[in-house]
Design goal:
Blueprint lengths: L1 H12 L15 E3 L2 E5 L4 E12 L2 E12 L5 E15 L9 E11 L4 E12 L2 E11 L5 E4 L7 E3 L6
Antiparallel strand pairs: 1-3, 2-3, 3-4, 4-5, 5-6, 6-7, 7-8, 8-9, 8-10
Length: 162
Amino acid sequence: MAKRYFIGLILLIAKLVFALPEDRGEPIEIVADNAVINEKQNQAKYSGAVVVTQGTLKIEGDVVNLKTNENGEVETVVAKGKPARFENMRRQIDKKPARGEAQKIYYTYETNRIVLTGEAIITSEESAFSGSEIIYDLASGKVIASGNKSQRVNMTMQPRNK
């Protein structure tokens, strides 16, 4: 029971930066079947239908690893799944969140980027990108997709209605 209170305390202290400015002040919530916290290594591993949310950002995976700095602030979130997923409202004017899925999703606090690897797909509004690796900048909305011989980059754009 004390372990759960400790996990909750770490999560209240930790802060992530995501696209919408008001997300910065939101608490991080993690729901999982299991959690293992290693204070000395500043790491936490969650498993079993893990859902991490803060404001409009949601990351889901079978296993999610968090790395924090000495101040308890989250530096990286790595989600693995079949597939792992994320969604995020980049701008308040967007009608739908950007969504992505891949075998592995790697979020870095410092760069404010999400890297999706392994059968990666991102949909934003009416556009869709796919490839073996996709880098999505949460602040700017910039997408960089790369492919290989077996999985080329694919983009689908819907025409605008006049």
